[in-house]
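Lab notebook, bench 4. We co-purified these components, and the gel suggests they stay together. Before we commit to crystallization screens, I want a quick structural picture of the whole thing.
Request: model the full complex, all chains together.
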Amino acid sequence: MPDLRRDPIVGRWVIISTERSARPHDFVPVQTTRPLAATLCPFCPGQERLTPKEIMAYRPQPVEPNNPNWTVRVVPNKFPALQIEGNLDRQGHGLYDRMNGIGAHEVIIETPNHTESLADMPTKRIEDVLWAYRDRMIDLKNDVRFRYILIFKNHGASAGATLEHSHSQLIALPIIPTSMFEEIDGCRAHYEQKERCIYCDIIRQDLADGDRIVAENPEFLCVTPYAPRFPFEMWILPKRHAGHFEESQKTQFEFLAPILSEALRRMDKVLAKPSYNFILHSSPLHEKTGDFYHWHIEIIPKLTQVAGFEWGTGFYINPVAPEESAKFLREAGI
Amino acid sequence: MPDLRRDPIVGRWVIISTERSARPHDFVPVQTTRPLAATLCPFCPGQERLTPKEIMAYRPQPVEPNNPNWTVRVVPNKFPALQIEGNLDRQGHGLYDRMNGIGAHEVIIETPNHTESLADMPTKRIEDVLWAYRDRMIDLKNDVRFRYILIFKNHGASAGATLEHSHSQLIALPIIPTSMFEEIDGCRAHYEQKERCIYCDIIRQDLADGDRIVAENPEFLCVTPYAPRFPFEMWILPKRHAGHFEESQKTQFEFLAPILSEALRRMDKVLAKPSYNFILHSSPLHEKTGDFYHWHIEIIPKLTQVAGFEWGTGFYINPVAPEESAKFLREAGI
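Here is the predicted assembly.
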């Protein structure tokens, strides 16, 4: 059973997941994407038996589960960081707090095509991926053990992807991750002072300033944030205030898919198809944060080596001003 | 002039240092250590003209500055993230806050020997490196613009080192980095509740538990923390409460040098000389935090690729329990 442990000083929870790897020599080489031939890829159609049993899939024609002919397929992670069965069993040990590492860890296979990336896909099919995120969130929200659902994508070896076939991941957690907690606290403080959502204020100011805009449509804005940790970091925000991604309307996804696609294609053009991560930041499942928290997606190309300085301090040196990176991205011919 | 910018949501300051790199194609390859021949290394004796003018150096015999025959040498970083001259010029721009990127960015060259690592050095010479840290902190503390001094080491390419010759870095900042602020807040909360330092409590519990101890001497304890973010993460803590590294007595350094050396050698043995970072966590320069903050060193071997999940959330999956890694480290024959 994995362990969830809390740092007593800063309150940060970590997963100690010893099932995944144990001996020091496992760490000697830094992890890289396994260059699997498509015929061996567990995410390719026809290889459904190589994954745990599917949780859901979208298929043009209904067939039995775990067969081909799907367009998006969701399966449990074969090497989950957390375990779905069991209770939390919260315990104190002197200063320290722990609980069982209970959670869901799922993989969203975005395409049946081994070589297709999310940026290459038609926007209608990106919409389907967004629907899959939403459907899984709605389902997992019914499990009272969970307080937060993380959805993220690692694209490319240096962003942490271990399989080449395009996929995202979902982790449902019995705690709220520290950084989300800090964002929510910041939003709450602003709301208490101003009675406005701070992300709504950011959208207004960034639209007025203009020089950090990467892309825009009637429902969404893509900007480089004013104080980015990383070069070419981008945020995609719904223009209308909304705390919960999973409560989005159909028209929202019809506008989110093309702006996500555009952001990725602009990034691919300017930075020659970099490795990247994106992370969906949405409200906790049951806390009343909807008035002041504003869901969004953060996209982080993996370009610079993060050094000791950044690790130890949460304080980042970014060699590119966001106004500069926005200009490169905005003006890229795609 | 570099820019210091504050994220309006979480309050995190970042350095936008556009002097260092500007065009997107600069980012296409991930940075690696330049395999410089020792004859071209700016940190080697005889090449002193290749660095900016030295700030201080330890020499067995006094000679003119910027000559060989030093054992430790401190120079300004040739590509500083911050600029030493100027005033802060704090400004607001709507929601956003900025100030000039004023700060010191120095390099501590730990050895005249190009191929020697800190772990290989005799402890007397490691003591000298610690004295150099202290002397620079004492000097920079006189500059009222600075609120925090970061000292850290990137060892190896995948930990962010750009030059092979063993060195540490110092950055003096006009702000307190977010993570330090969070640690201090956590310590203050514990102190207000218990009237005890939380790190002192950790030392007592870890000594009693025993299974997270890596090394120990009369003045210092090296442990793997209870909730480590990274496999084989280690903390070195002074057993006697002390908030400020730079106020250490001579005997403290006589005990710190050997335990730092031992920790690095145990890590090198178990993990086959990994890349690593260490970061000195000490009190802010002028805040009254000495009663409840406890300085320490955090050592982080660079083993696992940090994925999107960790970046976006500050929530880490660690595949090794600290009790396990402490056992491997403690039992390594060195």
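The domain at 3-18+32-178 of chain A is CATH 3.30.428.10 (HIT family, subunit A). Worth comparing against the SEC data before the next meeting. The radius of gyration of chain A is 20 Å.
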